[in-house]
Amino acid sequence: MIGRRIELRAIPEPAVLADGRALGNAMLRQLFIGQCLILALHLAWMPLWLIALAAAVAGHRYLQLCGRLPRAGLVLRLTAVAGLLAALWLEYGILYGMQGLIGLLIGVYLLKLLETHDRRDARVVVLIGMVATASAFLHDQGIPMAVGALLMLGWQVQSLVRLAGAGSAASAWRETAWLLGLSAPLMVALFVGVPRLGPLWAMPQLDRASTGLTDEIAPGDIAALSRSDARAFRARFRGREPTVSERYWRVYTLTHFDGVRWSRVTPQALSATLARPLADFMREGRRSPWQDENDPPRFTAELLLEPDSRPWRPSLGTPLATDSRQRYLADGTLEGRAPLSSRTLLTVESSGQAPAHADPAGAAFHAMLPPRGNPRTRELAERLWRESGGDTRVYLGRVMARFGEAPFRYTLSPPRLGSRDRVDEFLFESRAGYCTHYASAAAVMARAVGIPARIVAGFLGGERHPDGHFTVRDYDAHAWVEVWLEGGWQRLDPTAAIAPERIEQGPQAVRDGRERFLADAPFSPLRLRELGWANPLRLAWERLEYRWQRGVIGYQRGARGELLARLANGWQAVRAWLVEVASGRGLAASLLGLMNIAAGTVAAAWLGRRMWRRWRLDRDARAQLLALQAWLERRGLESLPGESPASHLRRLAPRAGAAGPALEDCAHHAERLLYAPLDEAERRQRHRQLAVRVAEVQRRLRRRRA
Fold first, then answer.
1. Is 118 a catalytic residue?
2. Which of 229, 421, 493, 665 is catalytic?
């Protein structure tokens, strides 16, 4: 006796049950996994209690399927939505902000599973998931987020394919890969060729800052930024690069001193206070109105700016021109017309030096001090002024020399100043501070003897990468002084006198208080700089990420034109090479024309053949089904009003005797051919099976009637 080996194969769980509407456990599990994956994209920016919400919804559905709980009623669903709104209100304080709206979208997406029972509900869940996937780019647009979103898109499309009738997960993934592959050329063509359009409506933006630098400072403020590695912006120079000592990025000009803090006076406030037109202090355009148009820029930098709710724009020294309209302030700073909701490219031409023009607010405005306060500092300033013989340069040199003497020290962890006369406390008691301490003291001492002075807050330095771009981070924040001297503003940096290593090597070179450097970023990749094998990996990743942000996220009209021009030039080069290789211009042109015509004809014929075969197979399936129905009706087996062909065949099957299984198979094959996403081989096979089963139905019913 010959034994027969029998292979048992697991039958895949159906996505939709036999009634064609209700969802199977496999589909519910697929939807829940998709929710968890999309929630993972948002979790770094969203509250963690959303995980508990997802688990609660999944637990309720599980108990419902086990028969322990009834379906979620209207009261339960409304209560869940109200609880979600209350939780978001407690988390963010408002619901109409961007974070609140994203949280509401994610919460509704999770709660939708409570009322998902049929195919239509599942499709709604998938579509909401696609919107939630796209909203993740409001948080971040880096490479990891793009890869994660692409995987989520594949998962959602695969869910739609399974809902459409895919027989197994493997066939659904094959169909998904085919659909995504077909859409990829169109996606690339739209990305490259279609101009970027502005938004048709406004949305509340995330209230966030790319850096902790603000438009008012007190001694010790910027020292706190040395704890952070947050990226402020990135820059690439066209032409000459600045030396280490020239990388002074100005952001804010601080002119008001209240005895403790230095703060910025806005152009609107200056216009109202001094009763002068706003145009005297701020103008919009592509070029600074305060500088001579014939002055050539020393530096041209392409900046990749981080999203920020504040409109500041950095410039290397005085801004001269930009590639888009910006606000040029008379104090030598640059300001955007609106905050940045996403990373943006901006090209800035700058002088690399302090402004050469006078500030319209006047010299007296920049020499004001509170009537009282810091008496010992005022006395010291007057004594040094007398010893300098009233010579401004000599006086400022003596001030700088005093900072360079012991016991003054430069530290990342300066002692806290608590008195009302904080400049006095710093100069005569603590004598330890960071850049803001020394800049504030120098500006006060300059104003104490009538020298116009102001503080500039910005950044100093930046890490240069091997590919030539610079990254400027929070810990590069710096403050220095500008004084009016000999008909122009001149930079005066007390840090150069007390800690020249800070100028040359950055804050990481400051030894005093070194434990505070990157204290808020214990897992920062920058801590790998001292490891010989890890630092090249870090630099390679940052170079890749910069190219992604600049080339993909920052793709704009100019880049589109340049790319299309390069493609056109490449085609022209190929054509010229073919002309040169061929024996004559006429022959080359003929060959090129014939090649284009042949390629187009072959492509059109191939596409037409596939479309015709698909249409013929679909048409034959419908024709066979309708012919079978007509044959049955002639024998008294009519269909009911509104009944579909497949339902008609299934209704007849139980009382058709030996023809019953063939009728069931005809209905099944017809539905698969008409509605399921089949590949060409499977379509041909099912078409043959349908023809065989139709013939079997007719043969068996004839015998039965006989």
1. no
2. 493
Bridge partner residues of 349 (DSSP): 300, 321
Per the prediction, the chain carries an average pLDDT of: 83
Q: Which of 478, 648, 669, 687 is catalytic?
A: 478
Domain ranges of the chain: 2-181, 208-373+450-515, 620-705
Out of 42, 229, 435, 437, the active site residue is 435
Among this protein's residues, is 493 annotated catalytic?
A: yes
**Could you tell me if 215 and 415 are in contact, meaning their C-beta atoms sit under 8 angstroms apart?**
no
- Summarize pLDDT for 305-342 with one digit per residue, the tens: 988 888 889 999 999 999 889 999 999 999 998 888 77
Helix (H, G, I), strand (E, B), or coil: what is residue 148?
helix
> In the chain, what is the straight-line distance between the N-terminal and C-terminal CA atoms, in Å?
42
What local confidence, expressed as pLDDT, does residue 513 receive?
Answer: 63
Catalytic-residue membership of 476: no
Task: Give me the count of residues in the chain.
Answer: 706
At residue 319, the 3 state secondary structure works out as strand
Whether the predicted pLDDT of 285 surpasses 80: yes
DSSP 200-249: SS--PPP---SSS--SEE-TTHHHHHTT---EEEEEEESSPPPPGGG-EE
Is this prediction's pTM over 0.85? no
Give the whole-angstrom CA distance, residue 688 versus residue 119: 29
Mean pLDDT, range 363-367, rounded to an integer: 92
Closest CA to 646 of 63, 9, 14, 19: 19
